[in-house]
Amino acid sequence: MEFLAAIGRAFLVFLEATGRLALFTSRAVSHCFRPPVYARLIGRQMIDIGYYSLPVVGLTALFTGMVLALQSYTGFARFQAEGAVATVVVLSITRELGPVLAGLMVAGRIGAAMAAEIGTMRVTEQIDALTTLATNPMKYLVAPRLIAGLCMLPLLVVVADIIGVFGGFLVAVYKLGFNPANYLSKSWEYLQFMDVVSGLVKAGVFGFFVSLMGCYHGYHSRGGAEGVGTATTNAVVSASILILISNYLITGMFFSK
Amino acid sequence: MTGSPPKIALSGVNKRFGDKVVLDGLDLTVGKSESLVVIGGSGTGKSVMLKCILGLLRPESGSIMVDGEETVSKTRGDREAMLRKFGMLFQGSALFDSLKVWENVAFGLIQGRHMPRVQAKEIALAKLAAVGLGPEVGELSPSELSGGMQKRVALARAIATEPEVIFFDEPTTGLDPIMADVINELIVKCVKDLGATALSITHDMASARKIADRIAMIYQGKIIWCGKREDIDHSGNAYVDQFINGRAEGPIRMQVRAL
User: Pick from B55, B56, B108: which is nearest to A133 by CB?
Assistant: First the structure.
């Protein structure tokens, strides 16, 4: 009986957490569409998420593209298919690696920062202070971050796609001896509009999840520095898991026959 | 008190967290332009009471009236409108780290009242001057200020919108005795200048004696004594006597758990 009770308790806790997240999400999203719009705060978050994440996302994309070209070349050389390297690089980057790696890097950088900032505001009563100053914390703190995450990650992924493909080009041309014009034409030849669009849709969803998890865990953090630390960890882990699960679902939506 | 309704009236307010009863049928009234100080030990429900009035926590039962209007059942939108009447000084100041000092003080004017920033800055600097801080402080970040200065800024923020009611949550906690007295005097002056109603919670008796018209004592979630400031030394209540004299012996037993 004790064992069954433990399972029941865990299930109830899971249901409670799911319900709380669903309520938080619906409230947060509804505030994105209702005035007042805090344009200054949205702009600041966009700079934080977009501009300041550029170096880390760019570096990740560059080296991923380079490794991809190297790996696919050595692999495909076994059955004389080296000509497919450019196509493999461009499709892998635009469809999968660009959005997923950018999402995970932003989850580590921005999701953690959001959870720590909002969590600290919670435990130092700054969120209560917002309420007493007749300002809705969901509208002031959460909505701008959700909007910025949703808008900026696709832009970051466009940059990551270009840098990733460029990384592959560098290795293919300067290390593996590909003809530059040939490599570029092969890159374009099999790339379809939907390959890029699917990556950008993923990026928008990932950006939303990263901001949502950062805000949710920060908003509900309790118990001082330890609580803020836990919130930060949970924000990164849950955003990463959501990114990987939703990546599969969106890929299925776009490309399953 | 006159025939007009009290500014704030709590009756039968109950609040619990899990099995722990924090407010147990609490009754309290605060008259217009009155300064009431609620004293009590740590964990007796003082802060929870303030948060229930502000709507930050929802009581399980009971009534909380502000200007004769029930607030417990108010929607979030209606409560935001009601909160425009309130100012609050938080125990830890709760200044926004990401904003400059003047932006903190002007926050309620810019966000709550949609005042242009230039005009709000002028008022913020005037309020900073009222608490003894120069305009140069306005350009600093809260983290660059001492604890006493942060309390002054928090006080300036609490009075910036000229609220009808101001709450003070442990206003002198963590300050040296001289700075605590400076803050107490500023509180008395600001409340008098605004003609506001003040509700303070503290366990600092020097502070309570300085800023209160009336003092109430909370114990185990109930108001066990309420009377004029000058009556507190001969209240005839053993709990009050023990608390104001800071004695370990008496009817109040501190919950001390062996490690």
Answer: B108
